[in-house]
Specification:
401 residues; alpha+beta; Alpha-1-antitrypsin, domain 1; seven-stranded antiparallel beta sheet; 7 helices
Length: 401
């Protein structure tokens, strides 16, 4: 992936996080990596003021946007566990400029019949097929006047390098206090899997959960009461290396970050240890991008009194709807566990004293927190979101894959 394209997509992710960040008690998930290629393709076919607005939104010149979109989608298709698709449906009789349509990535090409119910079934089937049933409906408003639909689908499935252990949990403080939750527990000797960054609202703790396919998930916990937007944007800057972070191996003893405790203790082994406790979660969101039309470069393009895409069709076109449906799940990723417990008693000796001093760190995500899905090599943020509600033990879906 080109560094300039990765930076442009991550910049859109940051701006979106800052603009639509919910209250702490509202969950969300969004992916600028799914929106950016479509905006780039629209920028290539646009004209007049809409062209300048779209170019600003995608962060590169409009005449280079379609090529960058194709390159990005091709690169994403090479990421194990990640599936992408692009689709275009035009109403029968709508002329399309060959120079523009030839730049579209390979994918579905279809015709809108003008029957909203029949067209919706076709588009819903495409969305469900391309996402393996995770998203069942195409997030678009259709009526008899609909002339064109341009869509993308992005689906990611990954497994942890090391699975979590599942346990019943009940936080003792914070918004989730006294509630049963599906706790996920794990320990590692790699202290620097947890790091601390500092942003406009104080310290932010980041935990890297490593996936098997070159894609990782970073859990992001801000100070109590910190604005969600500040926590997410600080996290994005940290995982993309735009903001320095300090690993737990170099942090001072005490509580150097939210949810984090670090110390040097008497131990039977000199090996350091990081104990992790988080929760399983599922988040679904529906986004109307036109509620932030300036962010996405769509202010002028929605004006139906004029046409804005002469490079797409000689017939005047304006944007009528722009939406995204998104889903994120976090769980033990297929981990299965069994336990045998036995108590035995024998004659014993006095216990030996610990011989070592070792670093210990504990990190706990037991109140609302953010998450970022990041391609490890390029640092492209594939999805971002906020967890307001954890899964309770009876709610956790059993993944069949």
């Amino acid at each position: 992936m080109r560094n300039s394209t990765v930076r442009a997509v991550n910049h859109l992710t940051t701006r979106w996080a800052a603009a639509q960040a919910p209250a702490e008690d509202t969950g969300t998930v969004f992916t600028a990596a799914g929106v950016w290629p479509l905006l780039a393709l629209l920028a290539d076919g646009s004209g007049g003021p809409a062209r300048a607005e779209l170019a600003h939104a995608v962060g590169i010149p409009a005449d280079a946007a379609a090529g960058a979109a194709r390159e990005l989608l091709a690169a994403l298709a090479g990421v194990r566990g990640l599936r992408t698709a692009t689709g275009l449906w035009a109403k029968a009789g709508l002329p399309l400029e060959e120079a523009w349509s030839a730049k579209l990535p390979a994918g579905a090409r279809g015709t809108l019949t003008g029957n909203p119910e029949a067209d919706a079934k076709t588009l819903d089937a495409w969305a469900s097929d391309r996402t393996g049933g995770l998203i069942e409906r195409m997030p678009v408003l259709l009526d008899e006047d609909s002339l064109l639909v341009l869509a993308s689908a992005l689906t990611l499935r990954l497994r942890w390098i090391r699975p979590f252990h599942e346990a019943y949990g009940e936080p003792s403080a914070g918004p989730w206090a006294g509630r049963p939750v599906r706790s996920l527990l794990r320990s590692t000797s790699l202290l620097d899997r947890v790091r601390v960054a500092h942003g406009p609202s104080g310290a932010v703790t980041l935990l890297e959960v490593v996936g098997t396919a070159g894609v990782d998930v970073h859990l992001v916990l801000g100070e109590p009461g910190a604005p969600v937007g500040d926590t997410l944007t600080t996290g994005i800057a940290a995982v993309t290396k735009a903001l320095p972070t300090t690993g737990a191996s170099l942090l001072p003893d005490g509580s150097p970050g939210p949810g984090l405790a670090v110390g040097t203790v008497a131990a039977y082994s000199p090996e350091p240890r990081l104990d992790i406790e988080t929760v399983a979660f599922e988040v679904r969101s529906e986004h109307d991008l036109l509620e932030h039309s300036r962010l996405f470069g769509l202010e002028t393009a929605t004006d139906r009194d004029h046409g804005h895409f002469p490079g797409i069709s000689p017939q005047p076109l304006a944007i009528a709807s722009a939406r995204q449906s998104a889903l994120a799940r976090f769980h033990a990723e297929g981990f299965e566990a069994a336990a045998v417990t036995a108590f035995g008693a024998v004659a014993g000796c006095a216990p030996t004293r610990p011989r070592y001093r070792a670093r210990r760190a504990e990190v706990r995500f037991d109140r609302p927190f953010g998450f970022l899905t990041v391609h490890r090599t390029s640092r492209l943020v594939l999805a971002a979101g906020w967890v307001a509600e954890p899964d309770s033990p009876e709610e956790l879906p059993d993944p069949s894959w």
